[in-house]
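REQUEST ID: PR-0412
SUBMITTED BY: lab tech R.K.
PRIORITY: routine
TASK: structure prediction, single protein chain
INPUT:
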Amino acid sequence: MDKVSIYEYISFIMPGGAILAMILFGFEVAPTKVNPSATLLIILTAVAFLIGHLNVAIANFLQPLAWGKRPGSWPSSTAGLFGRFGRYNEADKEYIEKVFERLFPEMSNFQKRFNLGYSILRQEQLDGHLQVLNQQIGFYRNMTSAVIISIGTAIAAHITGHQRISLALWCPLLLIAASLFLMRYRRFWVRFGDEVIRGIQAWEMRRRKIEE
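STATUS: complete
OUTPUT:
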């Protein structure tokens, strides 16, 4: 099992485990003091893994909200990359779009050119760092969703008369955690887009040198 695949499993188990823990303790299913056996730990890990997969579906649906888009739509691969607070200003954006248009004139817009560029980097096996970034994007997106679900679970437990979880304590802590995870998700999303752009520029320079 390589490094990336381990990160992939963690991206399911940790968010799923967070949700499962909130369900078990919030609804007072599990005792406060417990010494689980190895078998029980394996079962709980498997359940957390399954919940993690369900969480991914929710995270994918909510993901566009991080970029001010409606849930269920697909955010631009370059969201957060251009503009006042992005990696590139408007002049840089115009230059980059012209470079991609020159390289991939058969594509009708920049998003399609960007996607094709990413595919080329994958085919040329120049996407090692991109794979890691992609896993980190998934992890932080899934953790953000899991924390939000955990907040809802804690509130539901409180409404139904389960007082073990203190909303006054846990809601602010979970909101801070969700905000931090969201910030990391956005950061790695932007880094991913930046790496694709710089990777294609480097690929083009190498190709031109070979042709010379």
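NOTES: The chain has six helices and no strands.
REVIEWED BY: pending
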